[in-house]
Design a protein that fits this description.
1505 residues; alpha/beta; elongated
Length: 1505
């Protein structure tokens, strides 16, 4: 290998060569983690960490990169050898190396000069020092693809929190929802193609769907290469970014080939890395498909496995972190996935199982994975040394010779312990999981481990559900969580329901609704506030809410918190002023104080009903709370299509809800800046309009009258508005043009008249009203049918169509009279006709004033004025009236009589244009007027283009022809007017000089009636301007204006006409409503007689104080009628949704997709069936071989017996059977049976002795009894020194000190007698009566031999609030008293070791006050002994063990005096202790040996366990 590349002194110029700065290279945005802070004590760099939103990369040279460059050297170190000591080994090239593995020149300058104080022997703890790291930044793999990742070189002693801070804060990684640690063979191995594909697809799927981190060894070989290729294939096959799958490689720095290219003290952005497998030798290259690399440095070179301790600590640290997302806090789970592997992999699996980490073993990948997979279903007693030896000889053929007898014993012990924890072990077998793939196996492994984990109550199920929601795997939730094993209360699902809503996981919301979550119970005031507090920051509605809060903050001294009236304020802007506020603003003293259980806030107080928040009181705004409406609005304002669709399907007032959603989305789309989001919003708005049309169509087909009631019903939930009003506000033309809506409008238009009456009949009866009392006109109501009824007259003249016709006749009369006065009777002194016009106009002004002030909804004058001005025809009315008043003012002044007549003439023009509004009611003329209005917009755009050419040509022509024209009016004529007339063929005669006549112009511009002459010759008076230029300009001008622009205008008109013509019917039907509503609420008398109606209205409102009669298209229904109507609407909505689903299924494209899925499923089943058949054949062969092996053993025994009796001489004995019959036996997990209680102690043989670093000698089950010969057995010795204990045996094993101890008798105050009788003593040490433990000495126990303990089991029946005993599976349930002692994270029974001469354990005395000790001793005497003897304890050794007496103290009655006294004394115990009554079942989180005692107690009392 070449020079190591360590830079002790690097010049700036050299830095630029080694670490080139490239401004466009990507790096990572850091972000402040709002969920939790994990690095409180880290040194902060000069520039603070950016708090902006994370991005995938940041440009080199930015503040973020500078922050990283300053932060990493301050917080992350590397290791360097500071003392060169020559090693006996040499490098690959034969050169002398140091004990650390590096060459002399690869050390620092001072390292080669050995100071005297360092000594001669090389010691890593002394001679390897930490210093700031010099390798970090972006790593770019040269070659195809130019893949870029992150890397850092860290010391092996780096705290995990620092690395986690680097990854989340500086590398910009989101904390994971799952940690997948992939381990296995470090060298390349062969996998079956099908298994390889299943593994790759499943691993990537679980990482991509759950937001997991994948952690591997990072090198380009073995299992790490398999993971990298899986990520590569996923990236190539889909459009997801590489950052979607975080693949972290943790490798040893000293084993990385070409690592010198990564060294850069100022950071490599990027550092070029060459992947060279051919020349790597014993080192390894980094895998190019990993996204992040943590390179662990211990100062050595070429030594593998350095990264394992740091990787273990980092994985443990990450798994202890809590991630809060969507309101749900979860501990980050970790799972270990194993492929192939050797001895190191077995240690990894063993450590993972010991730490409670679930493992997934991929069977078929080879070596260790297959060994464990093949014995996983066997009882632990059958996993013997001989069996493991046979397995290793088959699966480790190349390296089997390296397995010593001690190694076989160690492997057997570890495999036994691994298999014993079956709840943490999952074997992925292709034939079993089939289509479910590896991703399901991984997630099921986590759930299986979680289900078998000890826990209190329902905490375990909650944790599983939180995981499923965080991973967004509803399939796992359905199959693994919502099963018959656990009954979910709807209230238990409320926190995860909120999390699913906030995280936008519609499938989970649908699942929770199916599981019984009632939105009425879930949606409370504070829950809604919580949901709006957690709006997506990128949401437009969120920014609008922040704007409202900011405006309120300007008027108040303190920052306001978000409340629902702020939401209501924004919603009213979106829904329009026709709706009332959905959430009224409460008074300061009336703000409801709720204790609502919201996610991650644990409260036991149920939320008050919203009806109790705002009780109806006089003068107070009342409102209704519709939970479906509230959630629907929350989903729609965030443009969450699937979520909103699920919630809308639950709505009762569904038609109003759909129209309101359409309105909200259209308003938000107007303000949204992102075009893609705008398109999505408009598409969703159109979809909701179609939903409303679909529901209304079904309703109209069933019952026209009830369907029309739905249009005008006042919806309390949507701000006291109506469906029709919402459709008009949202401009839903398709809905308004629906036949049912138009039929309703027609009915309103005709009033109480029958719609079958012809128009000529109405006009005839209007002119000759006595004809009403004939049968010429028919009415809809039966009471109006009699011809002598006086109500017919009122019903006729109050019909909107009659009012319209009378107003039309009145308006035509007004215009005729106005024209007559202007043309014939305009006198200096007004005539009576002119006075009549003034009076008429006054009545029109009064009517416009009434329309302006008419406010049935209480919106206020300002809002009504703004709504009035928005209408185009109202603007025209105001303009006509103002012009008329201006003309009238001038007309009444004698000096301005003529200008007054001119202004009045202009007013007449405007009044005539107002006639178009009247014609909009016509189905023939109405659409044409709409087309004209649209074309007027085109004309204005056209005039802008035309003005450019007119002004440019006019100015150039004027400047060329005429010199210094100072008259403004003639300048305007020459520049604009003449140029405009030129378009229509009036070409100026002087422009080309041929038709020039000097008599038609003024040479000096003094004649006011003639234009100034062009530039002429002073002598001959002929034009001297360049005629050729003016002619060219004229031709170009006419070309562009006459041909191009005019044809463009025609094309625009044609396009507008075609566009409007397609929808002209819809537009006319939509605008028809405005005219109908206007005349529906208009007084019946026409102007000027309308003044009588105005006078009546003034008297009623002003003098009599009576409320105004409302003439709106609204109807307030009775509660019963409204409830029945909404139920009918909801029923038809369900019918509509079912019809939509059936149509989707019948869709050709959907049918093709369904068929394709079925074909794929069938092909998969056939392939799976082939695999299963192969597996069955193999199992049968294995069973046959097993039977042959057993037969051979029987024959061998018979032959030996016969030979022993002298029937054979032993010669020519045939070989019987094969000893390798079980080598290829396949073992399935389906037939696994529950194992009985282990015959030997298990906890006492854990390899790591608790409270120390001492490792026990491995003792497999078959070698536990002392009677079994075990020549290899050589256990270490360990005896702790308890300095705080007065009585303890010596911790040295010297024979002199041991001979002083008297065993099997009372030794002073120490009772050394065993409950199991006499025990053996060997070399002064007693032998554990239960067999070997792998450790000599007394360990952490105080005495050699038995250490006596007392464990009282205090129980009572679990009861309901009424005192009845709770049962489960027909058995009574118990509660047991448990305690958690200081410095302990586990719960235990209140008992422990007995001190010499004491009757109660010290730990029990901590719990009870001193005055209760005698009474408790009496309770123990009255109790029942459930266990007396050996206790399987992790502290046991070969020479010291725990023996206990467990006594059941049960309180059978609820009012037991002793139990009440016990509870009172418990309350006064040590505050550092935690004591509780806990439900007794098999999942209670206690010590394993304590749970065995509880099982005996429950059996004694016949209780549930």
């Amino acid at each position: 290998m070449s020079a190591r590349g360590r830079c002790a002194k690097v010049l700036p110029s050299e830095l630029n060569k080694v670490c080139p700065e490239r401004g466009d290279d990507p790096a990572t945005h850091p972000k402040k983690m709002s969920d939790f802070e994990v690095v409180p004590n880290l040194q902060q760099s000069s520039s603070s960490v950016s708090k902006s939103r994370r991005k995938a990369h940041f440009p080199a040279g930015s503040n973020e990169k500078e922050n990283l460059i300053s932060w990493i050297p301050e917080n992350i170190r590397k290791k360097e050898c500071t003392y060169f000591v020559e090693s006996s080994q040499t490098s690959d090239s034969g050169r002398i190396v140091c004990e650390c593995g590096y060459l002399r020149e690869q050390h620092l300058d001072d390292a080669a000069k050995p100071p005297i104080f360092l000594g001669k022997e090389w010691d890593p703890s002394r001679h390897i020092q930490e210093m700031p790291t010099d390798a970090f930044g972006d790593i770019r793999f040269t070659g195809l693809g130019q893949k870029t990742g992150k890397y850092v070189r860290v010391s092996s002693d780096t705290p995990p929190r620092v690395i986690f801070h680097l990854m989340t804060q500086h590398w910009g990684l989101d904390p994971p929802n799952l940690l997948i640690s992939v381990t296995g063979g470090a060298k390349n191995f062969v996998m079956k193609p099908r298994l390889k594909n299943i593994f790759r697809q499943g691993l990537v799927k679980v990482a991509q769907t759950t937001g997991a981190w994948i952690i591997t060894g990072g090198s380009h070989a073995g299992v790490m290469k398999q993971v990298g290729e899986a990520v590569r294939d996923f990236i190539l096959s889909c459009s997801h970014k590489e950052g979607d799958i975080v693949t972290i490689g943790i490798a040893t720095w000293g084993t990385v080939y070409n690592r010198e290219s990564l060294v850069c003290p100022m950071g490599g952005f990027p550092a070029e890395y060459v992947l060279d497998e051919e020349n790597q030798g014993s080192l390894s290259c980094l895998d190019s498909n990993h996204s992040h690399f943590i390179l662990v440095d211990d100062g050595t070179h070429g030594r593998y496995g350095v990264e394992i301790p740091l990787r273990t600590r980092l994985e443990k640290f990450i798994s202890e972190q809590t991630k809060v997302k969507g309101g749900v806090a979860i501990k980050i789970p970790i799972v270990c996935v194993v492929l192939e592997g050797g001895p190191g992999t077995l240690d990894t699996i063993y450590n993972a199982i010991t730490n409670g980490t679930p493992c997934v073993i991929v069977e078929g990948s080879g070596r260790v994975a297959d060994v464990i997979a093949q014995v996983a279903n066997l009882p632990v007693a059958k996993i013997t040394i001989a069996l493991i030896q046979r397995k290793l000889s088959v699966l480790f053929q190349d390296t089997y010779e390296l397995f010593t007898e001690g190694k076989l014993v160690e492997w057997t012990k570890k495999i036994q312990d691994i298999v014993r924890s079956r709840q943490l072990l999952t074997i992925f077998r292709e034939g079993k999981y089939g289509q479910q793939d590896v991703d399901v196996a991984i997630l099921q492994a986590l759930f299986k481990a979680s289900r078998n984990q000890d826990h209190f109550g329902r905490e375990n199920w909650d944790h599983q559900l939180k995981l499923a929601v965080a991973w967004n795997r509803v399939d796992i939730a359905r199959s693994e969580i919502f099963t018959d094993d656990h009954d979910w209360k709807p209230s238990d699902l409320h926190p995860v329901m909120a999390a699913a809503l906030i995280s936008n996981k519609p499938e989970f919301v649908k699942l929770f609704l199916e599981q019984g979550v009632r939105l009425k119970d879930f949606v409370t005031w504070d829950t809604l506030v919580y949901l709006y507090d957690n709006l997506a920051p990128s949401c437009l509605f969120h920014s609008k809410l922040q704007k409202v809060l900011l405006e309120e903050r300007e008027h108040t001294s303190k920052a306001p918190r978000l409340q629902l009236h702020h939401v209501s304020q924004v919603l009213r802007e979106l829904l329009g002023c026709s709706s009332q506020p959905l959430y009224p603003k409460p008074k300061q003293a009336e703000r409801p104080r709720l204790s609502i259980p919201v996610p991650h806030i644990k409260l036991n107080v149920q939320g008050s009903s919203l009806r109790s928040l705002y009780k109806r009181s006089p003068g107070r705004v009342t409102f209704t709370m519709d939970p479906v409406r509230d959630l629907l609005i929350w989903a729609v304002v965030q443009n969450r299509r699937e979520l909103a669709e699920i919630i809308w399907a639950q709505s009762q007032d569904c038609m109003a809800a759909a129209l309101a959603c359409s309105k909200i989305l259209k308003e938000l789309a107007k303000e949204e800046e992102d075009t893609d989001t705008t398109d999505d919003m408009l598409a969703l708005a159109e979809e909701y309009e179609h939903k409303a049309i679909g529901v209304f169509t079904d309703c109209y087909r069933k019952d026209e009258e009830r369907a029309q009631k739905l249009l005008t019903r006042v919806s309390e939930a949507w701000g006291k508005t109506t469906c029709l009003q919402l459709a008009l506000e949202a401009k839903n033309m398709n809905f308004v043009s629906h036949g049912g809506v138009q039929a309703f409008l027609t009915k309103v238009w005709w009033g109480k008249l029958s719609v079958d009456n012809g128009l000529w009949r109405v006009v005839t009866c209007m002119l000759f009203f006595p004809l009403l009392y004939t049968n010429l006109i028919t009415f809809r109501e039966k009471r109006l049918q009699p011809t002598g009824c006086l109500a017919r007259l009122r019903a006729f003249f109050t019909a909107p169509i009659v009012i319209f016709l009378m107003n039309t006749l009145s308006y035509f009369t007004f215009l005729l009279l106005f024209a007559y006065v202007l043309m014939v009777d305009f006198q200096p002194r007004p005539s009576w006709r002119e006075y009549l016009i003034y009076f008429w106009l006054f009545s029109l002004v009064c009517e416009e004033t009434r329309q302006l002030l008419y406010d049935p909804d209480g919106l206020g004058v300002v809002k009504m004025a703004s709504l009035y001005i928005k209408d185009f025809w109202n603007k025209l009315d105001i303009c006509a009236i103002l012009v008329f008043i201006a003309g009238l003012t001038c007309r009444l002044i004698p000096s301005t009589l003529y200008p007054g007549r001119i202004i009045l003439s202009l007013a007449f023009i405007i009044f005539c244009l107002r006639l178009m509004h009247i014609f909009t009611v016509s189905k023939t003329l109405g659409p044409k007027i709409i087309i004209v209005k649209r074309m007027m917009k085109d004309v204005f755009f056209f005039l802008f283009l035309l003005a450019v050419w007119v002004v440019s040509f006019g100015v150039a022509k004027q400047a060329i022809l005429i010199h210094n024209e100072e008259r403004v009016e003639w300048l305007f004529r020459g520049v604009v007017y003449h140029s405009y007339l030129t378009i229509f063929g009036q070409i100026p005669s002087y422009i080309d000089g041929v038709n020039f006549n000097i008599d038609q112009c003024s040479p000096n511009g003094t004649d006011p009636y003639k234009p100034k002459c062009p530039e002429t010759n002073a002598d001959s008076k002929t034009p001297i301007f360049p005629e050729w230029l003016t002619v060219i300009l004229l031709c170009l001008y006419l070309l562009f204006t006459n041909i191009l622009l005019l044809n463009l205008l025609i094309a625009m008109f044609n396009y507008t006409f075609q566009q409007v013509q397609e929808h002209t019917d819809q537009i006319w039907k939509f605008q028809r409503h405005d005219l109908i509503e206007e005349y529906h609420g208009r007084p019946p008398a026409p102007p000027p007689l309308i003044l009588l109606s105005h006078l009546q209205l003034l008297l009623r409102r002003g003098l009599l104080r009576r409320p105004a009669t409302r003439h709106q298209l609204k109807e307030k229904l009775e509660k019963n009628e409204e409830a029945a109507l909404l139920s009918w609407e909801m029923y038809l909505k369900e019918s509509y949704l079912q019809h939509q689903q059936s149509q989707e299924k019948q869709n050709t494209e959907q049918m093709i997709r369904d068929i394709a899925q079925r074909v794929d499923a069938l092909a998969e089943l056939l392939d799976l069936d082939r695999v299963k058949r192969t597996g069955v054949v193999e199992q049968r062969l294995g069973s046959l071989e097993d039977q042959v092996h057993q037969s051979a053993q029987a024959l061998r025994w018979m032959m030996q017996a016969l030979r022993g009796n002298g029937f054979s001489s032993g010669e020519d004995v045939p070989a019987v059977g094969s000893s390798k019959a079980l080598e290829t036996k396949e073992i399935g997990l389906e037939g696994r049976a529950e194992e009985s209680q282990p015959p030997y102690h298990v906890l006492a043989r854990h390899l790591l002795y608790p409270g120390s670093h001492t490792l026990r000698f491995p003792v497999p089950d078959e070698k536990v009894p002392w009677e079994v010969d075990f020549p290899l057995y050589d256990p270490p010795a360990y005896s702790a020194d308890h300095k705080d204990m007065a009585v303890q045996d010596p911790f040295s094993l010297s024979l002199e000190s041991l001979l002083k101890i008297n065993y099997n008798t009372m030794d002073g105050l120490i009772d050394r007698q065993s409950f199991h009788g006499l025990y053996a003593v060997q070399d002064g040490l007693p032998l554990n009566p239960m067999g070997r433990t792998g450790l000599r000495g007394r360990g952490r126990l105080h005495c050699f031999g038995p250490n006596h303990a007392l464990h009282p089991v205090v129980t009572r029946w679990r009861r309901n609030l009424d005192g009845s005993i709770i049962r489960k599976s027909l058995k009574k349930m118990l509660e047991v008293l448990v305690a958690q002692y200081p410095l302990s994270d586990v719960w235990a029974l209140p008992g422990g070791s007995l001190e010499p001469g004491e009757m109660l354990p010290l730990k029990l005395k901590w719990i009870l006050r001193r005055e209760f000790w005698p009474q408790f001793q009496n309770l123990l005497k009255q109790g029942t002994e459930v266990h007396k003897g050996y206790l399987d304890d992790p502290r046991n050794t070969d020479n010291a063990w725990v023996e206990t007496v467990a006594i059941s103290v049960h309180f059978d009655t609820q009012n037991d005096v002793e139990m009440k006294r016990l509870n009172s004394f418990l309350q006064g115990c040590d505050p550092e202790l935690c004591i509780r009554w806990q439900v007794l079942d098999k999942r209670i989180p206690l010590h394993a040996n304590h749970k065995q005692l509880l099982h005996k107690v429950s059996t004694l009392l016949g209780a549930y366990y």
